[in-house]
Amino acid sequence: DPEDTPNTDESYSILDILNRDCLDHILNYIPILDIIRTERVSKRWQNMMQEHLEGRRTFKTSWWEMAPPLTTAVLRRVLQKLGGSLTRLHIDHHWSALNDRTAHILTDSSLVQIVKNDSSIESLVVSNNTHVTGLFLTGSSPPKLNSLSFYNCYSLQGTVLCAAIDTLPLITTLRLDMCPISMWKIIPLILQKLLKLEELSLSEYTSVDCLYTQNSDFGDAIANLPELKVLNLSKNIYVTNAVLKKLKRLDVSYLAALTDRGLTAASRLPLLRSLTARGNPALTARPFVACLSACPLLQEVDACGCDSVTEEVVCAALLALDSRPRLVALHLAGTAAAVSNKVQCCVTGDLSNPNLRPDFMDQIFDDSSEDSFDDMYDFDHDAFNDFFAAEDELFLDEEDFEDYEGIAYGLHGPDIILL
């Protein structure tokens, strides 16, 4: 009966097989340009792709790796496709990955058109940009923005950013990593306006062109942040014994000016849960012992690469467990405790980077040319000559030697370089 026979001519697509959740999961792995082009397949595909794009919450410009180049006009149309559900925007194209036209267009005037005052963006990241100064925040003032990050933005101006902060009352996360050294003088003024700040990152300030050593203003600004929970000051040469307050995680790795006295101040942090101080040669076990004894919630101590830290840290951890039982993770690889016979815990897996240590020195080219070959002559000459003396041990047979006139059969050990 023709009515009972299924219609084999009816076309089926992936939209008929997978549900919405499966399709969204698959489309997350497809470049956004291909998704936009897929809208041309049919009306049904167009509706499906538009619904998917409107549901995306994160977009990174580094995901755009094909033609046409990502100019401001293209980026603006892409954001229009994403709709009002976009909450996290990352302008993280590296300047070398862009053409000349794009590199000159992605400036403050361009970002004003992208980050508008009626957008729903909650997190904004601008990285690897040589043109943005921060002026676009004053013109756009996104009302829901609560996380602001700048990384490797050489043109960022502290005074402009300080004025823009007045229009961003909801900021709780601020990251100013690897920014111009002139920013460091304005940071205390910025922090005075962010009383709701919960996370602050000021890492990778390593330039000594204009060393700013007055940290009293910065310490006072940190102390006046009642909601601050996370502070990242790793690889920041401007940080000395600053005043710290209510923190849950503290990272003070690779700081040349950090001393035992400065880190001991962290023992007055009752909410401290994680303490990381990698590659600090001036630190001993004393500040870590003080933190383990005085911080009841401390669960992780990372002292990898601190040469002078001894097994006293382990003893302090055992005493802390007796007073308040909890899980405590100790990372002591690369310390004096790692070579001590008194430590019976795992001290392998050094998490520190020796190249980032303040006392790192490249020893490759230190030796002079006269001394660099001395080790080649420090061997037993008799044993060396005996090794090459027997004719049966030579690699060439006697018949092969007859083909070479003038070859020297006597091999002198000191004249041979073994690689």
From TrEMBL:
Q: What are its GO cellular component terms?
A: SCF ubiquitin ligase complex
Sorted alphabetically, the Gene Ontology BP terms of this entry are: SCF-dependent proteasomal ubiquitin-dependent protein catabolic process
| SMART domains with a match to the protein in the record | FBOX
Question: Pfam families annotated for this entry?
Answer: F-box (PF00646)
- InterPro entries, sorted: F-box-like_dom_sf, F-box_dom, LRR_dom_sf
Q: SUPFAM superfamilies given for it?
A: F-box domain (SSF81383), RNI-like (SSF52047)
The chain positions of domain F-box read 12-62
Protein's name according to its UniProt entry: F-box/LRR-repeat protein 2
Query: What organism does this protein naturally occur in?
Result: Operophtera brumata
Q: What is the lineage of its organism?
A: Eukaryota, Metazoa, Ecdysozoa, Arthropoda, Hexapoda
